[in-house]
Design brief:
The chain is of the alpha+beta class. It has helices spanning 33-44, 78-85, 107-115, 133-136, 150-154, 156-160, 167-177, 184-193, 208-212, 219-232, 239-254, 261-267, 271-286, 301-312; strands at 2-9, 19-26, 63-66, 69-72, 88-91, 98-100, 103-104. It has 3 domains: 2-104, Beta-grasp domain (Ubiquitin-like (UB roll), Roll); 107-232, Alpha-helical ferredoxin (Fumarate Reductase Iron-sulfur Protein, Chain B, domain 2), CATH 1.10.1060.10; 239-312, no CATH class. The radius of gyration is 24 Å and the shape is elongated. The termini are far apart.
Length: 313
């Protein structure tokens, strides 16, 4: 069967902007997108540029945008893509500078991974730091990351703020926070370094990184666990931490969320922040969107509290 492949091309030395080129290729049973790209390069256009290495979904080199989603070309079936989308479109990873065609500059990605110091900060093992299956299971598969960059390419926060550490780096940070071999002092220092405006609290929990991860690392879940560890360590004064703690406290108190008190939980006693959110509150009041702040608890709030306590344990 002969299929058309639309590939985004861009040579910064010759092109003013990226453009699409279409190639027609006879495909065979079991062909992957990477197989097709290699044949296009070898048979139709030797100028086509892309990265690949292991062809076994281990190295992460061939990560690219295929039919609008971040995928590994070596494990993406041409047939399944055609049946699902009615065509094959291939482009570079989004939100990363394009070097040429399908190859992107991963420099910023690696810089952010190095920024979280993905190694044990202290070789002094705590007394209970005994390697075991139960301790290793705390990593929750984050050590399976192959650094393909797909999660960063699809991250909505990284799209608007390139300074954001990103899902891969934060998931890697959690892997060392959860490591029993790191001393308590080093662990606390690591959590403290991630409290800034480009750290763990910037994630909007859009879940896109979980959807595209080829190794089921679930970076967003790792970020949530990182936040829990941070709050338990006493870092509960950032806006994000106050939101989490306030949300839980209100639900525990009323059995449901109180939307009027929730902003006050986040801003605390800051008059400046109160005046900043006051216009929004007035507009909500005029639109009938502000519930009675003194509303009673729902029936059986103690059952909600029991669930929250069970989750905490």
């Amino acid at each position: 069967m002969r299929l058309a492949f639309t590939i985004q091309r861009y040579n910064p030395e010759l092109d003013a902007a990226p453009h699409d080129e279409t190639y027609r290729l006879d495909v065979t049973r079991g062909m992957t997108v990477l197989d097709a790209l290699l044949r296009i390069k070898n048979e139709l256009d030797g100028r086509l540029t892309f990265r690949y290495s292991c062809r076994s979904a281990i190295c992460g080199s061939c990560s690219m945008t295929i039919n609008g989603g971040e995928k590994l070309a070596c494990r993406t079936s041409v047939r399944k893509e055609w049946e699902r989308h009615g065509g094959i479109t291939v482009g570079p990873l989004r939100n990363l500078p394009v070097l040429k065609d399908l190859s992107v500059d991963m420099g910023s990605f690696w810089g952010k991974v190095r920024a979280v110091e993905p190694w044990l900060r202290d070789d002094t093992r705590p007394p209970d730091a005994v390697p075991s299956a139960s301790r290793v299971s705390r990593f929750h598969n984050v050590d399976a990351c192959i650094m393909c960059g797909a999660c960063v390419a699809t991250c909505t926060v990284h799209e608007v703020d390139k300074r954001f550490l990103g899902p891969a780096a934060l998931a890697k940070a959690y892997r060392f926070v959860a490591d029993a071999r790191e001393s308590g002092q080093a662990r606390t220092a690591r959590l403290a370094s991630l409290q800034g405006p480009t750290g763990m609290w910037d994630c909007t929990r859009c879940n896109f990184c979980v959807e595209v991860c080829p190794k089921d690392v679930q970076p967003m879940e790792a970020i949530i666990r990182l936040r829990r560890e941070s709050i338990e360590a006493g870092y509960d004064e950032t806006g994000g931490a106050r939101h989490v703690v306030g949300f839980r406290d209100l639900v525990a108190r009323f059995g449901r969320l109180n939307e009027v008190l929730m902003p006050l939980k986040v801003i605390g006693l800051s008059l400046r922040k109160f005046l900043h959110v006051l216009p929004l509150g007035l507009r909500m009041l005029l639109k009938g969107k502000v519930p009675n702040p003194l509303h009673s608890s729902m029936d059986g709030p103690e059952r909600v509290r029991a669930l929250l306590e069970q989750d905490r344990r």
